[in-house]
């Protein structure tokens, strides 16, 4: 989730440019919206590292004192901010948080699956404030970005697959950055367990297993596994 691990691409370049403008935003809030797996959470962590902002969840915003949230850095990341919509207590909490940020010169980074124009907020004052603030869409990753992410994730594990494997994965895997992480982790485990190189046939088996719910980042006991550190280089040949 670090800045050095985020790859800028046309699908997210506008959002990155807005974050780079901070703290010179024209409003107390900025909304980044887009589908699951587009990288908006990663962008939230990048901004958090710069601003030292805490992260709050939209669905539990009414359980946190807004003064306490802003006390740390005068900035807050609100994940799943659209989940405040339709819940009076949550809407009131975001309204007070927005006003506090405005009055103190602070900022809110709101992360959402949907643009604010589609949030069904009942509190008119909150609705007008959020809609008046800038909102930037983060698109689903395209082939070039997904390919770059796959190559980087493999490299982080000291693996060097052939481009035939990358091309195969691009045409068959779920198109999200989170899915790329799951696929690479599952391929790494399968390669280690079977003592097989990273090839298209192995990828075919791993993707079938993930589709059937047999893969992922957990072992058979349901416990999260910690990656082993080692140096290994492989060339997938298909």
TrEMBL record:
Q: Where are the transmembrane segments?
A: none
Region annotation (Disordered) ranges: 211-238
Return the PANTHER family for the record: CHROMOSOMAL REPLICATION INITIATOR PROTEIN DNAA, DNAA REGULATORY INACTIVATOR HDA
The record's Gene Ontology cellular component field reads:
plasma membrane
Q: Which domain of life is it from?
A: Bacteria
Cite the InterPro entries for this sequence.
Answer: Hda_lid, P-loop_NTPase
- What this protein is called in its record is Hda lid domain-containing protein
């Amino acid at each position: 989730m670090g800045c050095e691990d985020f790859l800028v691409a046309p699908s997210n370049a506008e959002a990155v440019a807005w974050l780079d403008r901070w703290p010179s935003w024209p409003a107390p809030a900025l909304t980044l919206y887009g589908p699951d797996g587009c990288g908006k959470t990663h962008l939230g962590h990048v901004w958090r590292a710069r601003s030292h902002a805490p992260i709050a969840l939209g669905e539990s915003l009414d359980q946190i004192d807004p003064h306490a949230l802003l006390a740390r850095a005068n900035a807050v990341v609100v994940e799943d901010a659209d989940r405040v919509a339709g819940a009076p207590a949550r809407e009131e909490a975001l309204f007070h948080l927005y006003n506090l940020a405005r009055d103190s010169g602070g900022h809110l980074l709101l992360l959402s699956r949907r643009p604010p124009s589609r949030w069904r907020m009942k509190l008119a004052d909150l609705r007008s404030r959020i809609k008046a603030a800038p909102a930037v869409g983060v698109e689903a990753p395209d082939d070039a970005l997904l390919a770059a992410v796959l190559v980087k994730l493999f490299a982080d594990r000291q693996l060097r697959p052939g481009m035939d494997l990358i091309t195969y994965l691009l045409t068959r895997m779920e198109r999200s950055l989170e899915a790329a992480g799951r696929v690479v982790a599952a391929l790494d485990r399968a390669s280690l367990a079977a003592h097989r190189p990273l090839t298209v046939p192995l990828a075919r088996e791993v993707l079938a297993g993930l589709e059937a719910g047999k893969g992922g980042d957990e072992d058979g006991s349901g416990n999260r596994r910690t990656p082993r550190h080692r140096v290994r280089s492989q060339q997938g040949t298909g």
